[in-house]
């Protein structure tokens, strides 16, 4: 029996490159990349059999872009195995990717370069290595997948887990969107927002600048509604308490079975917090120091005037009445982001 994860980790090309069930056809496109498409409804004429329903949503699910973030990989694998053995119906065009396979094998976040900084052509700016090649390869497969979707909506969920404790266990990072009419912020998908809420996402963070992340690539270059999902804490393979991931597991399965727009219209979204990046703490020199403990949780709040970090003559302090910290890390290389500061905004701002 084909198992997506073990086939990927064993490093050999699958001897079974494709297959089908009553409902779907699947194809191994590249190492760790699987395309699954529903067969056309049996009520259509036989001459159409095997052709795709062009109204279907196209959904990309990725995990393992950071190789040690195992729980989403395990969840995705169990979903794929259920689809392939016919236990789960498919109502979307589905592309599934395991990102940094070499890092997954060694249980590391990455080997030479952080794959999630290499998309949107950033891979061309670094010396050639396995990770720059993988970014280029994934970009090509994703472009082709979305180009073949002539109708229907496009979505991408890039699933991660965080290292740090967090006041919000599960949250989404929405890539920066440039508005066509010159406003600073574009419009996000209400369908995606409702689905994320129903899948237990407690907060969403709007980025304010382009980046090398996978979700920015699919959003900006493939016009998908995309986000990076942080789904809890990372543990080694087999050590995860998958019950913590039950809502996202159920949400993904429901979306696969019914499509994105159904099944969660009644989701109560009133508790979902929305943040926007207000400043970045950039480590310029080796003398950069955070002014708070290493163990501070994500979404810890600071009040106006509090000192956040010191970097030689430069002082970072809270400028808004209240700011929340995300991903603080003083150990990055000089020139890189050592943390983000957020402000809360109204949900409605996402859709203006
Ligand atoms: Zn990650």
In short:
The chain is of the alpha/beta class and 352 residues long. The chain contains 7 helices and 16 strands. The strands form 2 sheets. The protein has a 13-stranded mixed β-sheet, with helices on both faces.
Architecture blueprint of SSEs:
Elements lengths: L3 H6 L8 E3 L3 E7 L2 E6 L19 E6 L6 H15 L8 E6 L2 H6 L23 H18 L6 E9 L8 E4 L15 H9 L4 E4 L7 H9 L2 E9 L12 H13 L14 E10 L6 E2 L10 E3 L3 E5 L2 E4 L4 E5 L10 E9 L7
Parallel strand pairs: 4-5, 4-6, 6-9, 7-8, 8-10
Antiparallel strand pairs: 1-2, 2-3, 3-5, 7-9, 10-16, 11-13, 12-15, 13-14, 15-16
The structure holds zinc ion.
Can you walk me through this structure?
The active site is at 230. This is Succinylglutamate desuccinylase. Its cofactor is Zn(2+). With 352 residues, the chain is an alpha/beta fold. The chain has two domains: 4-258, Zn peptidases (Aminopeptidase, 3-Layer(aba) Sandwich), CATH 3.40.630; 277-351, OB fold (Dihydrolipoamide Acetyltransferase, E2P). 22% of the residues lie in helices and 26% in strands. It is built from seven helices and 16 strands. Strands 1-2-3-5-4-6-9-7-8-10-16-15-12 form a 13-stranded mixed beta sheet, sandwiched between helices. The chain has a three-stranded antiparallel beta sheet with strand order 11-13-14, with no helix packed on it. Helix 2 (70-84) links the parallel strand 4 (58-63) and strand 5. Helix 4 packs parallel to helix 6. The protein starts with a helix and ends in a 7-residue tail after the last strand. The model is unreliable at 42-51 (pLDDT under 50). The structure holds zinc ion. Zinc ion binds next to loops.
């Amino acid at each position: 029996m084909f198992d997506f994860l073990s086939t990927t980790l064993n490093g050999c090309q699958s001897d079974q490159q494709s297959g089908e069930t009553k409902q779907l056809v699947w194809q191994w496109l590249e190492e760790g990349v699987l395309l699954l498409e529903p067969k056309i409804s049996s009520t259509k004429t036989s001459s159409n059999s095997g052709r795709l329903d062009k109204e279907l949503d196209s959904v990309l699910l990725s995990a393992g872009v950071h190789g040690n973030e195992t729980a989403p990989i395990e969840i995705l694998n169990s979903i794929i195995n259920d689809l392939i053995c016919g236990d789960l119906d498919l109502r979307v065009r589905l592309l599934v990717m395991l990102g940094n396979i070499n890092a997954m094998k060694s249980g590391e976040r990455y080997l030479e370069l952080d794959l999630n900084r290499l998309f949107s052509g950033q891979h061309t700016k670094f010396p050639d290595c396995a990770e720059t090649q993988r970014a280029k390869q994934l970009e090509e497969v994703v472009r082709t997948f979305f180009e073949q979707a002539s109708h229907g909506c496009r979505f991408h969920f890039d699933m991660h887990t965080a290292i740090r404790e967090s006041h919000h266990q599960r949250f989404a990072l929405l890539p920066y969107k440039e508005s066509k009419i010159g406003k600073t912020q574009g419009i996000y998908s209400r369908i995606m927002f409702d689905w994320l809420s129903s899948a237990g996402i407690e907060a969403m963070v709007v980025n304010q600048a382009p980046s090398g992340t996978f979700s920015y690539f699919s959003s900006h270059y493939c016009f998908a509604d995309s986000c990076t999902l942080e789904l809890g804490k990372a543990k080694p393979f087999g050590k995860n308490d998958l019950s913590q991931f039950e809502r996202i597991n159920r949400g993904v399965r429901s979306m696969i079975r019914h499509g994105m727009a159904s099944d969660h219209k009644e989701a109560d979204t009133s508790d979902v917090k929305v943040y926007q990046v207000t400043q970045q703490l950039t480590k310029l020199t080796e003398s950069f120091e955070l002014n708070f403990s290493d163990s501070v949780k994500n979404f810890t709040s600071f009040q106006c005037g509090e000192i956040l970090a010191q970097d030689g003559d430069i002082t970072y302090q809270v400028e808004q009445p209240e700011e929340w910290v995300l991903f603080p890390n003083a150990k990055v290389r000089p020139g890189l982001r050592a943390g983000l500061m957020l402000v809360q905004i109204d949900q409605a701002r996402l859709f203006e």
